[in-house]
Design a protein that fits this description.
Blueprint (H helix, E strand, L loop, with lengths): L7 E10 L3 E7 L12 E4 L2 E9 L2 E7 H6 L10 E5 L19 E10 L4 E6 L13 E4 L2 E8 L3 E6 L1 H6 L10 E6 L1 H20 L1
Antiparallel strand pairs: 1-2, 1-6, 2-5, 3-4, 3-6, 4-5, 7-8, 7-12, 8-11, 9-10, 9-12, 10-11
């Protein structure tokens, strides 16, 4: 489990295309501290498993399903990525509960800068819109953010200078893809209410 608080802005150092997968080499001095084979590291919000680790770099395999459902397939050598290690039991939950399981991708539609923050408008797949609410939580490229405005096909977030300086959202441009993970609690509530309605319908 992650919290959506990015630990560092890493870099893709290698991309190896396999038959039905891809192997990435990634550099991250912070997240590789104490890393070992089998550990999990979130890369742009996608939970990946460390295959090898040497110095401040690690490799991770990404299967076709993940490449198809996320924006990782667009990464190239030199791409910057958000990195986060799993939260430890007893740590502060600085963001919100993030699984590292991408629900879909959006696209940066517009950026509106101001003196102290920046409003970013992001497209929203139709199947995810019901989980996104004003002042609710959403994960964008692994970053825990608060929704400012929620529309049927888009939402906006307000980014503070720290987020702009330390994450990929500081360098993303209109047209760039982003990974989206909605609040998992909303999905569980929907499932439980759906099952309850179904059960009551059968009973009646």
């Amino acid at each position: 489990m992650f919290t959506g608080i990015v630990e560092e802005l890493g870099e893709v150092t290698a991309v190896e295309t396999l038959d039905d997968a891809c192997r990435f080499g990634l550099r991250g001095p912070v997240v590789t501290q104490g890393a070992k084979h089998g550990d999990s590291i979130a890369v742009n919000g996608v939970c990946l498993t460390v295959v090898d680790h040497e110095g401040d770099e690690f490799t991770a395999d990404v299967m076709a399903e993940t490449l198809n459902r996320s924006s990782l397939g667009a990464l190239a050598v030199g791409s910057r990525v958000n990195l986060e290690r799993p939260t430890a039991v007893g740590d502060r939950l600085g963001g919100h509960i993030v699984q590292g399981h991408v629900d879909g991708t959006g696209e940066i539609l517009d950026r509106t800068p101001s003196e102290h923050w920046e409003i970013v408008k992001i497209s929203l797949p139709a199947q995810l819109s019901r989980y996104v609410v004003e002042k609710g939580s959403i994960t964008v490229d692994g970053i825990s953010l608060t929704v400012v405005d929620a529309g049927r096909d888009h939402f906006t977030v307000s980014l503070i200078p720290t987020t702009l300086a330390l994450t990929t959202l500081g360098i993303k441009k209109p047209g760039d893809p982003v990974n989206l993970e909605v609040d998992v609690i909303a999905k569980y509530v929907e499932r439980m209410l759906g099952d309850r309605v179904a059960d009551e319908g059968v009973t009646r």
